[in-house]
């Protein structure tokens, strides 16, 4: 006898239909396809075939029993005791009054197998049909499922009877298979009958009731575990029922207690299995469910050459709600967000909560990346509309990241991680929705490997510093900028922007800054001992400035190398004031107090403002190369540079232009009153030995810019001080740059060949 579930749903029926896929933690991608195909296999019209087949089997067997004159059910005390026990179980199932998962109980299965072992298939079918009719009558809206359920149970009983017949056991009401007749071979025969019954009924129920898109390895594994519990109960209880029915049938109703206890145990196991795949607060599926369902969607998309998409959504400023209104209010807010997310899901989409204020939406079929983006924007817009919380109107913005199969990843975990990367890009740039871009992903396996290699290179001293000169318009060398270079033993030269970004995001940046400072100061000390008193600039990141004790560590290194503070210049950006302005201001003031000069790098980009310029204790301002590159051909860039120079001079700051690569740009900068330039036109970044030769070729010791040229008059226009339209290159005597020791300007494109400075990535 197989009990009638209370609902049509699959395992974990409270979850969205179609919870499936091979979980990444328990099954590899290579195992997923065959598991999913097996679990999702469907036979068209299987329920109807089961009913028809069971009807034929039942009719044939009843006809044989009737024609042979055999009884269908035992009489006297045994018959009435079995009837009472069956009635108690039926009452238990009806009184339970809740949806039950298929194969979620074991009481009926234990009773059915016991009657089958003792009296054969006919009484077992009678009990099964009695349960089907009685429970189906109470739950009339489930009558179709009840019919299929009864048919499945009849076929299971038939399979068990055939297994007994195969070993020569033919129990009947007239000739029971009494325990006194059991020998040593009875145990494997009973096990075989129980296995046949369970296998047939559970497989037919799975393929008859589970929705088409479901292939659920985790649920399948848990179902197998529960079936193992049922099998143990059958082997333990069914023979005992048989013994009591044969010798003390009056005691049979007492078996209602252990049978109902067995049901309760399996019910608790089912609830715990559901909780393992469901978020307890919102009722949405959780991360494990999402991964499994995504595996199935990706497998289906791969077989049909379609696309799937995963949208990861994070609420902005949700923490402020928790901090202001309390966690209980935050929980109520999450419930409202979950309800709104359910209501706005596109057709066929499925939502999950990953934890905290992070949600995910799976689009099993996505026409294109554009359609996935459109769906994500719709969801973000819906979540960002005002909602009421305890009389308070709240507006929470959301950020979403989109990753698409197969373009961005071919496995569930990879798709989720890439959607997460895109989501943080959307949150950082405040764009609402972003699609994953590999070029912006800082945590690819390749980059992680590069991080380990960089750490080893720093320990081994394999990272080098090159030095690029800064030169005034009178040819005087104003200083050098230390630029980090790394030649990987296998990859060759690694672009500085790439490995510095890795160091910045991984926490290796302080180690890299320490290495650069130590190497640069050691080189400055050697130059000073050789009579070359050239100042060197080193870039530092906001993370360095925010580190406790940074100013003292810099002063200690200066003292250890015997280098005066004025010989070191630190290049910073305005980003140092954005995260922790008070600590940054204290650190910068301490550095200035030690006599270390500072230069404001990348001025004109990012968050440039007069407030920052006033608060930073800098003596030099560097105009970003993005404005200098088109200075000669873009009037707007030229005006920006002119106003920047005038502003800096009015504040007593020197101005250095980066990225100078042609004579016309040199002339325009000189006419605008710029103090010094840096770029290919002067010299590329050079190793220490070449830098030493380059400096000596300029007749020795450089001079500071303050002494090299007077401050131009502040005008609201081009500087009045102009030179001729022709000039010699800095430090030369009328010859070409080649004769001065500096490298010639490459003939390739500017963007492809310009050396990249050591710039912290913000």
From TrEMBL:
InterPro entries in the cross-refs: Cyclic-di-GMP_PDE-like, EAL_dom, EAL_sf, GGDEF_dom, Nucleotide_cyclase, Rev_trsase/Diguanyl_cyclase
Transmembrane portions of the chain: 46-66, 78-97, 109-138, 150-170, 182-207, 228-245
GGDEF domain residues: 306-438
The keyword Nucleotide-binding appears for this protein: no
Biased composition (Low complexity): 10-26, 728-744
UniProtKB keywords: Membrane, Transmembrane, Transmembrane helix
Region named Disordered: 1-29, 705-762
Domain EAL: 447-699
Domain of life: Bacteria
PANTHER family documented for this protein: CYCLIC DI-GMP PHOSPHODIESTERASE PDEF, SIGNALING PROTEIN YKOW
Protein name, as recorded: Bifunctional diguanylate cyclase/phosphodiesterase
Organism encoding this protein: Streptomyces marispadix
């Amino acid at each position: 006898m197989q009990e009638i579930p209370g609902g049509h749903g699959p395992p974990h029926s409270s979850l969205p239909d179609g919870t499936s896929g091979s979980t990444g933690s328990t099954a590899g991608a290579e195992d997923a396809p065959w598991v999913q195909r097996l679990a999702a296999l469907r036979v068209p019209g299987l329920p109807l075939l089961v009913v028809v087949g069971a009807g034929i089997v039942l009719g044939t067997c009843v006809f044989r029993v009737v024609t042979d004159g055999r009884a269908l059910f035992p009489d006297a005390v045994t018959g009435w005791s079995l009837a009472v026990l069956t009635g108690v179980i039926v009452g238990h199932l009806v009184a339970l009054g809740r949806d039950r998962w298929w194969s979620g109980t074991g009481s009926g299965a234990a009773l059915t197998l016991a009657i089958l072992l003792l009296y054969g298939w006919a009484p077992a079918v009678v009990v099964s049909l009695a349960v089907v009719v009685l429970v189906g009558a109470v739950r009339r809206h489930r009558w179709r499922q009840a019919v299929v359920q009864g048919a499945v149970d009849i076929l299971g009983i038939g399979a068990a009877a055939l297994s007994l017949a195969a070993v020569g056991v033919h129990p009947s009401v007239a000739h029971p298979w009494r325990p006194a007749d059991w020998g040593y071979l009875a145990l494997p025969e009973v096990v075989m009958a129980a296995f046949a019954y369970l296998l047939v009924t559970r497989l037919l129920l799975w393929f008859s009731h589970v929705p088409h898109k479901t292939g659920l390895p985790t649920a399948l594994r848990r179902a197998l575990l529960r079936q193992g519990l049922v099998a143990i109960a059958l082997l333990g209880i069914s023979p005992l029922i048989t013994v009591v029915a044969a010798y003390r049938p009056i005691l049979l109703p007492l078996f209602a207690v252990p049978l109902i206890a067995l049901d309760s145990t399996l019910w608790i196991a089912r609830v715990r299995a559901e909780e393992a795949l469901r978020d307890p607060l919102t009722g949405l599926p959780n991360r494990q469910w999402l991964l499994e369902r995504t595996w199935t969607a990706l497998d289906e998309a791969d077989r049909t050459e379609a696309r799937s998409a995963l949208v990861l959504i994070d609420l902005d400023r949700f923490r402020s709600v928790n901090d202001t209104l309390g966690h209980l209010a935050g929980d109520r807010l999450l419930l409202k967000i979950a309800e709104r997310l359910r209501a706005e899901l596109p057709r066929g989409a499925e939502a999950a909560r990953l934890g905290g204020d992070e949600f995910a939406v799976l689009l099993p079929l996505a026409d294109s990346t554009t359609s996935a983006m459109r769906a994500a924007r719709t969801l973000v817009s819906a979540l960002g509309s005002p909602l009421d919380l305890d009389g308070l109107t709240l507006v929470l913005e959301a950020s979403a990241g989109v990753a698409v199969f197969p373009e961005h990843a071919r496995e569930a975990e990879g798709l989720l991680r890439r959607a997460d990367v895109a989501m943080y890009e959307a949150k950082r740039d405040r764009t609402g929705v972003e699609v994953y871009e590999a070029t912006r992903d800082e945590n690819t396996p390749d980059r992680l490997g590069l991080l380990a290699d960089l750490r080893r290179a720093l320990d081994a001293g394999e990272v080098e510093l090159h030095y690029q000169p800064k030169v005034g318009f009178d040819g005087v060398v104003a200083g050098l900028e230390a630029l980090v270079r790394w030649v990987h033993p296998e990859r060759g030269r690694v672009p500085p922007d790439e490995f510095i970004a890795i160091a910045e995001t991984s926490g290796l940046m302080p180690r890299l800054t320490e290495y650069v400072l130590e190497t640069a100061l050691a080189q400055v000390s050697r130059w000073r001992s050789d009579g070359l008193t050239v100042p060197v600039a080193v870039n530092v990141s906001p993370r360095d400035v925010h580190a406790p004790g940074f100013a003292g560590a810099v002063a200690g290194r200066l003292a250890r190398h015997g280098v005066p503070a004025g010989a070191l210049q630190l290049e910073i950006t305005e980003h140092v004031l954005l995260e922790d302005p008070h600590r940054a201001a204290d650190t910068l003031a301490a550095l200035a107090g030690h006599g270390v000069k500072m230069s404001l790098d990348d001025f004109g980009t990012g968050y440039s403002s007069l407030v920052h310029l006033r608060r930073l204790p800098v003596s030099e301002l560097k105009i970003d190369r993005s404005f200098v590159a088109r200075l000669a051909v873009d009037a707007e860039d030229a005006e920006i540079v002119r106003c920047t120079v005038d502003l800096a001079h009015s504040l007593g700051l020197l101005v250095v232009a980066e990225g100078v690569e042609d004579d016309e740009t040199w002339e325009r900068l000189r006419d605008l009153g710029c103090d010094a330039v840096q770029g290919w036109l002067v010299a590329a970044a050079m190793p220490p030995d070449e830098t030493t030769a380059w400096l000596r070729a300029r007749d020795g010791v450089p001079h500071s810019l303050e002494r090299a040229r007077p401050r131009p008059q502040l005008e609201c226009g081009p500087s009045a001080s102009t030179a001729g339209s022709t000039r010699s290159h800095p430090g030369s005597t009328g010859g070409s740059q080649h004769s001065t020791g500096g490298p010639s300007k490459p003939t390739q494109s500017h963007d492809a060949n310009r050396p990249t400075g050591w710039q912290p990535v913000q």
